[in-house]
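ASSEMBLY PREDICTION REQUEST
Request ID: AP-0331
Submitted by: J.K., bench scientist
Number of chains: three
Total residues: 603
Priority: normal
Notes: Please return the full assembly, not individual chains.
Input sequences:
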Amino acid sequence: MEFFTIINIGGTIAFAISGTLAGIRKQLDIFGLLVIAFVTSIGGGTIRDMLIGHLPVRWLLDSSVILLITGTFILTILLKNHIEKIDKTLTLFDSLGLGFFTLRGIQEGLAIQLDMSACIILGTITACFGGLIRDILLNEIPYLLRKEVIYATPCIIGGLCYFLMKQIALPNELIDLLTILIIFGIRILAVKKNISLPRGG
Amino acid sequence: MEFFTIINIGGTIAFAISGTLAGIRKQLDIFGLLVIAFVTSIGGGTIRDMLIGHLPVRWLLDSSVILLITGTFILTILLKNHIEKIDKTLTLFDSLGLGFFTLRGIQEGLAIQLDMSACIILGTITACFGGLIRDILLNEIPYLLRKEVIYATPCIIGGLCYFLMKQIALPNELIDLLTILIIFGIRILAVKKNISLPRGG
Amino acid sequence: MEFFTIINIGGTIAFAISGTLAGIRKQLDIFGLLVIAFVTSIGGGTIRDMLIGHLPVRWLLDSSVILLITGTFILTILLKNHIEKIDKTLTLFDSLGLGFFTLRGIQEGLAIQLDMSACIILGTITACFGGLIRDILLNEIPYLLRKEVIYATPCIIGGLCYFLMKQIALPNELIDLLTILIIFGIRILAVKKNISLPRGG
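STATUS: Completed
Returned structure:
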């Protein structure tokens, strides 16, 4: 299996797990949890595709995504006591997913000739808006808005590095890999050090 | 008038009424209620059309829908004391609407060659996401997530039956009719028996 | 600079400021505020473009909008103590923006041959849905639904006047200007007099 396919699957799984766990804390019923798992996992890419007009959105055309999320969901429900213990593994996948999805959004933007700022925004939306919709549905002020540092900040910095590396003409594969690693690294660091940004007020 | 046109109109009316009544409970002003009536009624189909790229969305092209909802809204405001008494009629229309809108979503999916799981998801979105957006706007954890059994569950089961009946090659009209009746029946039963799904936690 | 360009920029700036200030009140961190500033400013136009299929949405193709909002955001953060004092200037720009964005939505609708009611709805969405999404993200019952009179009502009345003036065949530029002024005027009046609509219940 290709490197990117693995990360993609890992990211999808991690987001599906994190959505399910968030729903359990809010005491949703089984189907409510399934909806939350889906939305967290594919919400960001869906918004991106709706913004750029890449329609029908991808997951409607590819039932393997639907199967992957449903399978992850069922396993999460069955194993939830164990999964809550493996918090570190979750953060790991979640951070890899953040990196991959940001890269994916940037590439989708480049494919339709968008400029740098638009591409970075698309990447950040792809990576972060699934969690944003999850929080809206669960009736909370989105975590994204309160703890940006561990969501949007790594994506934005990673996106800037991506275009910087393009400037110095590194090979494409290396740029992709480094972008994911940068986002992954900042995310892990921010979670570990519990870093937070200054408030605006 | 055709059978499906009647159900379609009935569903639209029922959802417009249920949105208006939900807004009244939250003490919205007149235009706030109108917005909620619209969103509840056409929200699901709008999200579906935005996901599959069927744009501009239908109701922008067909002012009869706008007139129908506005008329229903005005009547609901004027007659609201009576409408709250006719709760059963509302559940009836609401359940018929659920059946029709699910069928409609499935058919839209088939028209663009989506596979079974994608079609059932589209059907469920068409039937349930108007109410979902209504609840988000009214700042509640969506009813869909807490009481799936009377929303998404009938749609998903009805959708599965639809494709099962396709397999055994029943005539199309019969399949359509039975799908609506199955969803309608499960919904009515679930509301009557006050059935609920197990929580995930 | 053209008259409409000025109003457009003024409206974008006003909405970016109002989003930032709303976020500060909710104690978001810096990037959370930036997200809110963007969403408030371009949310309405984005929803409109997604509904009519005008994709990719405009601001993805025009980085000057992104720069304008980011610049406004930075200035708002730096000058926030002063800006809160200049509340009247904000209402002024906000109301001009409301007028301009309504007109813009109507024109986009006419460009794809939508009829009157659909055009007015599009105009209202363009002008009001940025604030609606802002409120959803900040986990409040949208202000739009509670205080419609100072949001949707001026847009709807202005839209009706637009089509009335078309009927009596005034010159296009005059119609555009008068529509903005009517919406602006009603808005300012409603804010000043603290007018509110009757509740539905």
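REVIEWER COMMENTS: Chain B has one domain: 3-193.
SIGN-OFF: pending second reviewer
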